[in-house]
């Protein structure tokens, strides 16, 4: 479903602040894979997701979605295939628009938009049905502005918007990091349910090693822009947090820059 071939990305290239954020990354992800991505600060986690989403051009390498080479495609063109949920609950929605208007925009992702009713009666029925599954009562609040919702409600809505039209790739960039622990658990359960029910191909960046172990069928660890661990299925399921830290030491031969972040 996704292939990255010898991808390299510099920031501030040629200056004293030059950073090699992705260092010859080769990665192949099958359809239906749920991949958790971990690493210390500056390891390249968000850069990896940004590269797939098309937020910047690569300096070297290729990115393919299915059999389509999207390396030179801008972000808006890749949006036909890629959905994304960010860390900040304020991103990914329009706060001044209503819940139903935000969902109507999500429903038209990747399609041409002409003149006509913004929200149709049949769409409202669909929206109520999908919102009811969240168990937050939002199906009764379709006309309400999204800016009135709590952070957890907005993040749940963003998850629904991202999957309303089934994406080929779902990118989750620390999407529970800004939430309180109780809300974060709810969104994490919702994430697992949505990915499994829709059989989505998903990459989820997290700082929480326990979440990285518990969710998905594959785990990759980044360090200094390189993939240093790639664990799948049974090997991943047998992991413990202590075991994963030990695997890092074995792979890299050095201590983590910030154990406290990875072990949060």
Would you kindly provide a brief summary of this structure?
InterPro entries: AAA+_ATPase (IPR003593), ABC_transporter-like_ATP-bd (IPR003439), ABC_transporter-like_CS (IPR017871), ABC_transporter_ATP-bind (IPR050166), P-loop_NTPase (IPR027417). Keywords: ATP-binding, Cell membrane, Membrane, Nucleotide-binding, Transport. By secondary structure, this protein is α/β, with parallel strands linked by helices.
Features:
264 residues, alpha/beta, Rossmann fold, disordered C terminus, six-stranded mixed beta sheet, 10 helices
SSE order in H/E notation?
Answer: EEEHEEHEHHHEHEHEEHHH
Proportion in β-strands: 15-25%
- In the sheet with the most strands, the strands line up as 6-7-8-3-9-10
Q: Write down the CATH class of the domain at 2-81 and 167-262.
A: Alpha Beta
CATH topology of the domain at 2-81 and 167-262: Rossmann fold
Q: What is the helical fraction, as a range of percent? A: 25-40%
**Structural class given helices, strands, pairing?**
alpha/beta
Which runs of at least 5 residues are low in confidence (pLDDT < 50)?
A: 260-264
Number of strands: 10
Overall CATH architecture of the domain at 2-81 and 167-262: 3-Layer(aba) Sandwich
User: What's the mean pLDDT score?
Assistant: 88
The radius of gyration over CA amounts to 19 Å
GO molecular function: ATP binding; ATP hydrolysis activity
Protein name: ATP-binding cassette domain-containing protein
Pfam families: ABC_tran
GO cellular component, one term: plasma membrane
